[in-house]
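Quick one:
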Amino acid sequence: MIPQQLQRALEEDIHAAPAGQTRYLMVLIDMAGLSDAQRGRIRNDMAGRMHSLLLHPDFLALRPLGPMLVGSDDTSPKSRDALLSIAGAYDADIVQAWITSVLSPADLATHLSQACFALGKDGERYLLRYYDSLITPVLYRTADAAWVASVFAPVISWWFAGANIQHPQWHRIPGSANARCRPPSPLVLTETLWKALAGDPLPHRLLDELEQVSPDVFSTQCRGVRLAQIRSHLASANQIGLNRHDDLIAYVFTALSRPAASLQADHAWQHALQQAVAGEAPLAVTTPIPTPHNRTAR
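Output:
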């Protein structure tokens, strides 16, 4: 569900348009990570309002499963309310971003399609998933400032999905609201940017594995919150001195499975932690931990 605070912010963007300027509301959905049922629902809900961001001929086969900018050229309150009502009811994991722009959905899709290519140091072209809510903030912080400015030039606000350990959150990237902007050039992937985009794969591996073999350890259905919880527990594990791969996995699984107060009062668990930190017996060996049977690969 779309939070009321976010909905108010989107409406304020629209109503703040100066005389003679038209502003549009749209939502960005990546079809790649959705089930067939979810894709079918969205195509049915949003018929006639979907604009692919993969407009280059090389991406023709990927378009049905790629990112879609959803919105209407109709800027009436009734049309905006319809989009907010339909897309606002979607799970946070479906919507990558809410966007207000001075370009129509079709024109903004054309503009953003130019950002889908990135160039490596070897000159090779790569598909850049800048629209992924996990990638967007990394690029905003780390990518070439001129490239970032050109991508968001026609945008008023780009709200991307995030989460803390308790609930989903939305974060704003401000644009320039410039309707006469040039399309972005391909982003050059520097070594620093490569490393930032790669990040730490372990939280994502753990999330994928636990969702397959032990989904009941999570108290929420939101993947963003689940990922935030895993990252928080990994940070705690590193803070107390755990560094072996299997110890990290055992710690996260146990922390998700049992209340913190219970673990704090469990002398066997505390002793096992001390041994693991000292590099002695592995955490999963010295205490009975119901770890998933299909361990994450290194």
